[in-house]
Amino acid sequence: MEKGVQRISVSLAPDVYRELSKLVQERGFTNRSQAVSEMINASLIEHSKERGQEMMAGTITLFYDESRPGLLQQLASIQRDHINEVISSQHILLEDNHTMEVILVQGPANRLKLIADDLITCKGVKSGRLVMMSILLPPIHPLPGEQNPR
Fold first, then answer.
1. 112 near 53, Cβ under 8 Å?
2. Which segments of the chain are extended strands (E)?
3. Are 57 and 137 in contact (CB under 8 A)?
4. pTM for the predicted model, two decimal places
């Protein structure tokens, strides 16, 4: 991987330039370059998701009604079926029998998308979203035959 930065020049229409400057200020970016770099990175991640097989790390965030009969068992079963990709989950209890669950996942992008779709489409899930990044979690355990560096 190459260190440092590479410079590019971008021409923008005046209204796009004003909106970019406004975004930089509102979101607290150091400068326009930082904002544009973040947008390009997000677009590259989306492109990677479309390719399918690239290894990604991410989160699946679900909001659901835990009082829905069988829902908790169904969600747990889906996660258990994908134990190689599901790293951990955190449940946050909300008002009126609602729960927010954040599931940490890692694996091929297309597989993570399928897992998210299976979870999000369960009856009782109010909303859900998969967010992925191409930067991976370090291995939790060494592979067979490898030494643990600690």
1. no
2. 55-65, 86-93, 98-108, 125-133
3. yes
4. 0.68
Q: Name the strands in the sheet holding 125-133, side by side, starting at the edge strand that comes first in the sequence.
A: 86-93, 98-108, 55-65, 125-133
Number of domains in the chain: 2
Which CATH number belongs to the domain containing residue 62 in this structure?
3.30.70.1150
- Local confidence pLDDT in tens for the 150 residues of the chain: 457 888 888 888 899 899 999 999 999 999 999 988 888 887 777 766 656 788 889 999 999 999 999 999 999 999 999 999 999 999 999 999 999 999 999 999 999 999 999 999 999 999 999 999 888 888 777 667 766 555
On whether both 24 and 74 belong to a single domain, the answer is: no
The residue count for the chain: 150
Q: Are residue 36 and residue 59 in the same domain, yes or no?
A: no
> Which two three-digit tokens encode residue 132?
């992925």
- Report the SS3 class of residue 100: strand
- 85 and 47 belong to one structural domain: no
Domain end point (choices 30, 51, 72) = 51
DSSP 31: S
